[in-house]
Amino acid sequence: MITKAEIQTLLHSTETYRIERTISTGNMDKFCEAICAFANDLPDSRKKGYLFIGANEDGSLSGLKVDDALLRKIAAIRSDGNILPLPVMTVDKVTFPEGDLLVAEVSPSLLPPVRYRGRVFVRIGPRRDIASEAEERLLTERRTAYMATFDATPCLGSTLDDLNLDYIKDTYLPSVVDADILNQDRRDIKEQMASVRLYDRTHDCPTYGAIILFGKNPRYYMPGDFVQYVRFAGKEKGGEVLNEKRFQGPLYSMLPALESFVSDAIITQRPVSASLFREKTVINYPKNALRELMMNACMHRDYQSNMPIRLYQFDDHVEIMNAGGLYGEARPENFPMVNDYRNPIVAEAMKEMKYVNMFNQGVMRVQDMLRENGNKEAEFDVSKLTVFCVNVYSNEDRVSQVTTQKTTQKTTQKTTQTVGNALSDIQLAIIEYIQNHPNASRKEIAANLNNITENGVKYHIQKLQKQGIIKRIGADKGGHWEIIVPKE
Prior knowledge:
The chain is α+β, with helices and mostly antiparallel strands. It has 16 helices and 20 strands. The chain has helices at residues 4-11, 28-40, 68-75, 133-146, 165-176, 179-184, 189-195, 208-214, 251-266, 287-300, 344-352, 362-373, 396-419, 425-436, 442-448, 454-466, and strands at 19-22, 49-53, 83-84, 89-96, 99-106, 115-116, 119-124, 127-130, 199-200, 205-206, 226-232, 241-248, 269-273, 279-283, 309-313, 317-323, 379-381, 387-393, 470-473, 480-483.
């Protein structure tokens, strides 16, 4: 709060845009309009404004006696809802020999324009008035400039000791600043970091972006800043936990470790038969698709949340969930065509470190890679306000189905080629049907083949069994048919 000496100076000051003097104690509209105007700070002085109740226009005191009722009435202006956004102000009584002075100290708002009952008041020198359209637009633009993203705000309490300065000096700064300019730069490290928004000069501390990217222990300031990996048995979260791992630390060191883990522990490949004499390698997930999704999760997450990024692996899919829903201009109806950056400093640094490209093509690229690998497209859940979730499904089931179909075709073909001359057309049809429907009953076979009764099916099946071409595994109910592949 302002001191007595400062009050005496301001009472006779020529800085009239910061001062309103009045002897009235009951004109509440006048008081509210003055507070609204001080909060808007049209000259952008960044200085506090003062409403002096009990002072004449020439700065002399009127002899007012300020009681508790008047203090409460003026203090209630802050939160009665008529001035929005709520002003930052304090109210106090200051006693002089000539009388009391009620002082309302108002800080410039970081969210202008401030309105009193829907109208924007500003102060132009000694005059208070309603803002013009141009003045209101100026205040709106200032509001946008004031609203720093979380990664640009100061991490109060942190110091340079919380950062890996060697990496910043030797690796990061040379990647974002031209070498010639950097060699000629004689500023200290704080000024150099401030130029790339990693340091806050006003509060003399690193920004949250610096802690996220290069901090020695980011979780000290942001407890949720880590990636939780869990491998569940089965296809749901209720399954047994088979493996669990936590990735934490600054992004410059965590991202390579995470990238390597995804490649080594989640991505699997195996050979499958492509033809009689050739095999091909099948990969359950395209590596670059999972990498892209994980990098985006780290880039777009809400670092103020205590929820970690969740990387959950199941038998048939991978789920990636991070705190923070769609941000800014991105909405469910325009996703993924429109993108916005919750953490622009982090996004810019990740681009410089070659982890993302910031061209708003990540989702489309992921879907293309999944289709090319034989996976179904990823499912994005953007309906939640506080989280963003994506499910990526393995192509193992699809590959197994294709492999089974090919094996079935090869087995049937090999059987019919070997003994085909000795079999009738109806017997070949029965073999082909039970190859594709091993649990079929004689009644079902007869219903799906032309010109044969159930007894006819029974007759031909008995002949095929005697020739050793098919056999019954298990009981009549619950059993199945199996075709015997002839030996070469």
